[in-house]
Amino acid sequence: MPFVFSSGYYIYAEASFPRQNGDRAQLLSPKLIGSYCLQFYYYMHGAQMGALHVLLVLGARRFKQFSYTGDQGQKWYKAEIDNWGKHAYQVRFQDFP
Fold it and tell me: Is the pTM above the cut of 0.85?
């Protein structure tokens, strides 16, 4: 196991069977205010790998902060996104553009 933490959470989204074309997954944070550093690890390996997008949601506007599609190799990667701003916003993880 490449990463060991004493606490935390994880998200698992299956990209192969039983998923079907058109299936969607997303995770939306509560509203946040202020500057934060978002760190997460992702693993995207396999022939049927879809996409991972992280967006900043500010009212009706969406700002893509991170995006990968397809097989990224058999490896865990660390991503870091920081300094969001002074207005209320949410962070959205999603598997569709």
Answer: no
